[in-house]
Write a structure and sequence with these properties.
Strand 1 (44-51) and strand 2 form a beta hairpin. The protein is of the alpha+beta class. The protein is built from 12 helices and 11 strands. Helix 6 crosses helix 11 (334-363), helix 7 (231-241) packs across helix 11 (334-363) and helix 9 (277-297) packs antiparallel against helix 10 (305-327).
Length: 399
């Protein structure tokens, strides 16, 4: 009897060691491929304001540290760059010290960018550089570089060039008549190649953009907000998927999530609902952790799962609304742009769901095998990331 008991204990210990080794491999892989503790490389946001008194002002919202260390869109996060240590040193500098360090880059910046009016380059100069305090150093510091110049009143169109060596960019143009208090934002252009923007019209200031233009711009923006940039939304969708390989529960959960985030996306964009980002972002991270932890304890979808997914979908919709508000909506085409953005988001979600379903269903056709080798270790990893992100966001927003 004693011998049998020891044999049973030995088998249990060996099995536990095997599970821990497999979990260690998963954690190592996720550490290598997900930007949990590194600064994510974000595109520059460029806003060009053209005034009827012939002034032009350009705001470039970007990471000064990334410019100084040549960390651009080639890297998913700063740790992938050979200049990661230099980036970290700049990231810890005070605003005044970094401003001084950035002066050496002024000439390179002015020689690299180009604003062209009807094909002719416009001389630009740096008006100022706004660098905030270092704050919480585990997240990127968003600085603003202000350029200025003059353009002729009879200009018809402009183009903007921002070298790919500086990073990807999203560009839009605002036309302003201060005398009549009229203004108009163009749609964004997302530039991921080393080329100038397509021409921005300066003549039909309040003209409606074409429906094709609105559709292409906002479907693309919605899709790319999920894949590849929306790691928090992707991980939540993956957490939903890991519950089961059965298609019906998966479709029900995806439907609840879609319905919920569509409601708050619309309400948030039209400012019917307002919640501070400092509350929304930590809760989104917490939602990731919750669905993952629930996967560990439940083998089948409970009757509370759909209401929970719906509630968390409402939170994610507010996150979508914040992004879309920053991106901007074309004057006179709010509804169309909102609908097409939502379509792009759905395409991104479906891409994640179907990629996971078809790839994993080939290798793990049995439910028990899928749970043992995918659901449990995958949910541990996603839950760990969700808790980590929630902690980081609380520190960032509340300290």
């Amino acid at each position: 009897m004693l011998l049998a008991s020891r044999s049973f204990e030995s088998v249990c210990v060996d099995r536990l060691k095997q599970i821990l080794r497999q979990l260690s491999l998963f954690l190592t892989a996720i550490t290598l491929y997900l930007p949990v503790s590194a600064d994510v490389v974000k595109p520059a946001l460029v806003e060009i304001s053209v005034y009827t008194d012939e002034r032009v002002e350009i705001e470039i919202r970007t990471s000064v540290e990334a410019l100084l260390t040549e960390i651009n869109g080639r890297f998913r996060n700063t740790t992938e760059s050979p200049n990661a240590e230099a980036y970290d040193r700049f990231r810890e500098m005070s605003a005044d010290d970094l401003t001084v360090a950035f002066r050496s880059f002024h000439d390179r910046l002015l020689n690299g960018v180009q604003l062209a009016i009807d094909g002719k380059a416009v001389p630009l100069q740096i008006a100022s550089v706004d660098i905030p305090p270092p704050g919480y150093t585990k997240v990127p510091r968003a600085s603003v570089i202000y350029l200025e110049g003059h353009i002729p009143r009879d200009a018809l169109a402009l183009t903007w060039y921002y070298p790919l060596a500086f990073g990807d960019q999203a560009v839009r143009v605002r036309q302003v008549n201060e005398e009549t208090n009229q203004w108009h934002w163009s749609a964004h252009q997302w530039i991921r190649e080393d080329r100038p923007t397509d021409p921005f019209s300066l003549t039909e200031i309040f003209g409606q953009p074409s429906q094709i233009k609105v559709m292409n711009t906002y479907v693309e923006a919605g899709f790319f907000h999920i894949v590849p940039r929306g790691w928090d939304h992707m991980l939540f969708i993956m957490g939903i998927f890991l519950m089961t390989l059965k298609l019906k529960p998966l479709i029900w959960q995806a439907t609840m999530f879609t319905l919920a985030h569509s409601i708050t996306l619309t309400a948030g964009v039209f400012e019917w609902i307002r919640l501070p980002v400092a509350i929304v972002e930590p809760l989104i991270a917490l939602s990731i952790a919750y669905v993952a932890i629930e996967n560990l304890f439940l083998k089948h979808m409970s009757r509370f799962r759909l209401p929970v997914v719906f509630a968390f979908g409402l939170l994610h919709g507010l996150g979508f609304a914040s992004m879309l508000t920053d991106f901007g909506l074309p004057e006179g085409a709010y509804i169309q742009a909102l609908l097409w953005f939502n379509v792009g988001v759905e395409f991104g979600q479906l891409a994640v769901l179907f990629a996971g379903y078809f790839v994993l269903s080939i290798w793990f056709s049995r439910e028990s095998t899928f749970r043992r080798w995918v659901t449990l270790p995958g949910s541990v990893i996603i839950g760990w990331i969700g808790v980590s992100w929630c902690y980081d966001r609380i520190l960032y927003f509340w300290t």
